[in-house]
């Protein structure tokens, strides 16, 4: 520890989510040690060449009370090399870090997984719950699910409390991926085929995720626990885009296109996941996270306003 304050090691600290989580921890009295792959820019930074089964974590974990593991391999093609990268980083690299944390006497280990361990849609089913059987989709979802299984085996009797968080799409300032595409389309008033979409989807602001991570670090709990975390409001893709446009002080250009036609064209183009993200439902049962007493600090509308800022903090 440093000056009596607790120290937390954060992997992926320079990424989109990390740039929201780190300031929240610092503001609340934590000493943050960032695991970085580039030359350290702060006295608390520690350089780690890679996240793999061979990484030496001893120096990074020395004097640390908790680990927040955000780093992951994402958006790789489905070739043999990518499969190996997902396994080495998201699965075996995560479990090696967890075992190293146990050896170092770490009290808390928080792993940010993904809702994709349940699949891309719960169409025709009740909202996903923490105790549902895992049905992961894609290389990313499968690698995260495998890491969860390994962490559940490591936790018992280790003396380290493991928390798994399964978020849906995370949005916020600096977000990439699907949210960045939607934001660009709305700001540039590009036509979107969402006029009659009536699905329901969960979203999570980066600020709310950071808040729950902080809350979890301050609360007692069992040796292994899983939480589905999302914004309280779960809305259709159409409404999400409309409210994003409102936050940007513009209006969206929405038109109708037969979903079946779009589904066929995206599937043929190898983008079936894009169809699911836009048109399928992805609802989460938030009763467990609500029962902890945690309250999300910002609403969906406030989160979207903050997501339009040019800087994260």
Automatic annotation (TrEMBL):
Domain NAD-dependent epimerase/dehydratase stretches: 8-222
What does the record give as its pathway? Bacterial outer membrane biogenesis; LPS O-antigen biosynthesis
**Do you know which InterPro entries this protein is assigned to?**
Epimerase_deHydtase (IPR001509), NAD(P)-bd_dom_sf (IPR036291)
Tell me which family the UniProt entry assigns to this protein: Belongs to the NAD(P)-dependent epimerase/dehydratase family.
Supply the name of the protein.
NAD-dependent epimerase/dehydratase family protein
State the species of origin. Bradyrhizobium uaiense
């Amino acid at each position: 520890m440093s000056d009596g304050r607790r120290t937390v090691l954060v992997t992926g600290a320079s990424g989109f989510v990390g740039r929201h989580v780190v300031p929240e921890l610092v503001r609340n009295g934590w000493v943050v040690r960032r695991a970085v792959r580039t030359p350290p820019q702060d006295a608390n930074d520690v350089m780690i060449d890679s996240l793999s089964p061979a990484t030496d974590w001893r120096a990074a974990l020395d004097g640390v009370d908790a680990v927040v593991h955000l780093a992951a391999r994402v958006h790789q093609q489905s070739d043999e090399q990518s499969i190996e990268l997902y396994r080495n980083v998201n699965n075996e690299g995560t479990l090696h870090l967890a075992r190293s944390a146990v050896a170092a006497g770490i009290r808390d280990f928080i792993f940010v997984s993904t809702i994709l361990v349940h699949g891309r849609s719960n169409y025709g089913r009740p909202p996903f719950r923490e105790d549902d059987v895992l049905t992961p989709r894609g290389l990313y979802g499968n690698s995260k699910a495998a890491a969860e299984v390994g962490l559940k085996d490591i936790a018992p009797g280790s003396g380290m409390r493991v928390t798994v968080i399964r978020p849906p799409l995370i949005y916020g300032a600096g977000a990439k991926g699907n949210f960045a595409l939607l934001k660009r389309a709305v700001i540039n008033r590009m036509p979107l085929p969402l006029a009659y979409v009536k699905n329901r989807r969960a979203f999570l602001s980066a600020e709310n995720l950071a808040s729950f991570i902080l809350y979890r670090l301050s609360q007692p709990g069992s040796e292994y626990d899983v939480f589905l975390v999302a914004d309280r409001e779960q809305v259709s893709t159409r409404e999400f885009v409309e409210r994003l446009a409102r936050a940007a002080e513009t209006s969206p250009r929405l038109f109708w296109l037969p979903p079946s036609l779009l589904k066929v064209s995206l599937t043929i183009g190898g983008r079936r996941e894009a169809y699911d993200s836009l048109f399928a439902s992805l609802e989460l049962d938030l009763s467990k996270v609500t029962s902890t007493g945690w309250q999300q600090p910002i609403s969906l509308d406030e989160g979207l306003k903050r997501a339009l800022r040019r800087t994260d903090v």
